[in-house]
DNA sequence: TATAATGATACTATTATTATATCATTTTAC
DNA sequence: GTAAAATGATATAATAATAGTATCATTATA
């Protein structure tokens, strides 16, 4: 199983790659050459990161993408939220039909505790810290 | 997303239900009446729990299932392992193609830390502790 | 004004999970 | 002995999430 989807994973790579090279502007084509993320997928991700405020974009010829903010202010949690929504490790159990005794379900609190831990990790990780290998 | 699959979830319910009623033997039909887990799915799960050593079974008329060991010795980790294999939250990234720099991937260590925490929770949780609401 | 970029979006493919269905085998009550 | 009631084994279908593709519209500039 995977805690992070590929969209999240690829996006982190993009952000790290950009952050490593200062405040340069990048086209999708350039990023493809460097990172080999499937091209149309990459483009969609870039657009989502733009909409989500992680990147800024310029349209038209000589357009491209750049980081919207400093690497130390971009949290892994932001990327996860953008592509996966709020982390909810309990999801399935309560989706369509209500769990018979949600309140007292002791499994729930275990999962919740793991979820909390994961979110804390994501909140405490920035693009900068990833670049520094922390 | 869900940390536990339905197989795992259902199985925990079955184990807790059994544990709550002493060392009784149960048929799949009885468990269905009590737990309303889809019947063929329930049967398959019971068979897997039997093979996996969580339950014992008796075949033939007046056959059925019972706990293979005391509730305090059955760990949530055992159930997860049986139905989901070793928890591997990193899975996707390294599946088909190798991550370009697995060793140095700082994301990996974050995920690993979350995985370790989750496993610790699972190891520390037993059917008995779930019954007691811990 | 042609070109080279992003924007928007519909579509397809793949995979994992969830669920069903069926027939074989075993045991026992009668 | 044998029918009935249980599990064993296993193939298949349905659903949903993820991953990836394709295409046309729009924008800006060389």
Secondary structure tally, helices of chain A: 6
Helix content of chain A: 40-55%
Number of strands of chain A: 2
Structural class of chain A: mainly alpha
Major beta-sheet overview of chain A = 2 strands, antiparallel
Oligomeric state: homodimer
| Outline type of chain A | elongated
Beta-strand fraction estimate of chain A: 5-15%
CATH architecture assignment name of the domain at 6-86 and 127-131 in chain A: Orthogonal Bundle
For the CA atoms, what is the radius of gyration of chain A? 18 Å
- First-to-last CA distance of chain A: 24 Å
CATH secondary-structure class of the domain at 6-86 and 127-131 in chain A: Mainly Alpha
Topology of helices and strands:
2 copies of one chain form a homodimer.
Chain A: H1 6-20, H2 28-35, H3 39-51, E1 55-58, E2 64-67, H4 76-84, H5 106-123, H6 127-131
Antiparallel strand pairs in A: 1-2
Helix pairs in contact in A: 1-4, 2-3, 4-5
Chain A binds a DNA duplex (30 and 30 nucleotides) through helix 3.
Describe this structure in words.
- 2 copies of one chain form a homodimer.
- The model of chain A is unreliable at 92-100 (pLDDT under 50).
- Chain A has a domain at 6-86 and 127-131: Winged helix-like DNA-binding domain superfamily/Winged helix DNA-binding domain (Arc Repressor Mutant, subunit A, Orthogonal Bundle), CATH 1.10.10.
- With 134 residues, chain A is mainly alpha-helical.
- Helix content of chain A is 51%, strand content 6%.
- The longest helix of chain A has 18 residues, at 106-123.
- Chain A has a two-stranded antiparallel ribbon.
- The structure holds a DNA duplex (30 and 30 nucleotides).
């Amino acid at each position: 199983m995977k805690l992070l989807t590929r969209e999240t994973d690829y996006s982190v790579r993009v952000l790290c790659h950009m952050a490593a090279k200062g405040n340069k502007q990048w086209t999708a084509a350039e990023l493809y050459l460097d990172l080999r993320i499937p091209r149309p997928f990459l483009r969609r991700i870039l657009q989502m990161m733009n909409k989500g405020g992680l990147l800024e974009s310029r349209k038209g010829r000589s357009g491209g993408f750049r980081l919207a903010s400093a690497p130390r202010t971009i949290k892994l949690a932001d990327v996860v939220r953008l592509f996966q929504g709020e982390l909810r490790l309990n999801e399935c159990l309560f989706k369509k039909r209500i769990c018979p005794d949600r309140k007292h379900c002791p499994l729930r609190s275990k999962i919740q505790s793991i979820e909390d831990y994961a979110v804390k990790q994501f909140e405490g990780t920035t693009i900068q810290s990833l670049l520094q290998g922390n």
